[in-house]
Design goal:
globular; 7 helices; mainly alpha; single chain; 3-stranded mixed sheet; 137 residues
C-alpha cells in the first residue's frame, strides 16, 4: 500500500518527469505507476513515500527552505479539506483523479501561482486541460 500526504494526492497528477535528483524522479515514477495500477493509497501526515527519497528531508522535516515544512503542512491540510479526506483514509487513484477537476481552481489559485514546480506542471497535459491559465484572471 502506498502512503501519500495531502498535497501529493493533488500534485502527483501533474508529474512530468522532473524532480530534485535522478533517484527522486525514479521514485516518483514508480509511485505513479503503482497508483495508476490501482494500488491502495493510505492518506498520511508528514513525510510519505515520495518525501522519503527527497534530498531536503532531514529526519521527518523538509528543509527545502526555512518555511517549507510549515507551508507543506498547510498545503496538506487544504488538500485533505478540498478532497474531503481524513488521515488514514484509504483511497484509489481513479477516484482521486476524478476529483482533481472539482478542486483544481481553488487549489491552483492558492498554491500553484507561487510554486517553484509550476513550470514543470505546465508541461503536463492534464494540468493544462484543467485550465490553469483561466485561474490567473
Amino acid at each position: 500500500m502506498l502512503q501519500l500526504r495531502g498535497h501529493h494526492l493533488i500534485c502527483l497528477h501533474f508529474f512530468k518527469g522532473q524532480g530534485y535528483s535522478p533517484e527522486f524522479i525514479v521514485n516518483l515514477g514508480e509511485i505513479l505507476k503503482k497508483a495508476e495500477a490501482d494500488e491502495q493509497i493510505e492518506v498520511v501526515s508528514g513525510a510519505d513515500d515520495i518525501c522519503n527519497i527527497c534530498p531536503y528531508l532531514k529526519g521527518k522535516e523538509c528543509f527545502y527552505n526555512s518555511e517549507s515544512d510549515q507551508e507543506i503542512q498547510a498545503m496538506d491540510r487544504k488538500a485533505l479539506e478540498l478532497l474531503e479526506l481524513s488521515l488514514r483514509d484509504i483511497v484509489r487513484w481513479p477516484a482521486l483523479r476524478g476529483n482533481i477537476p472539482v478542486v483544481f481552481q481553488q487549489w491552483s489559485q492558492e498554491f500553484c501561482r507561487a510554486c517553484d514546480w509550476r513550470k514543470a506542471c505546465e508541461k503536463n497535459d492534464f494540468f493544462n486541460q484543467l485550465g490553469y491559465e483561466k485561474t490567473l484572471r
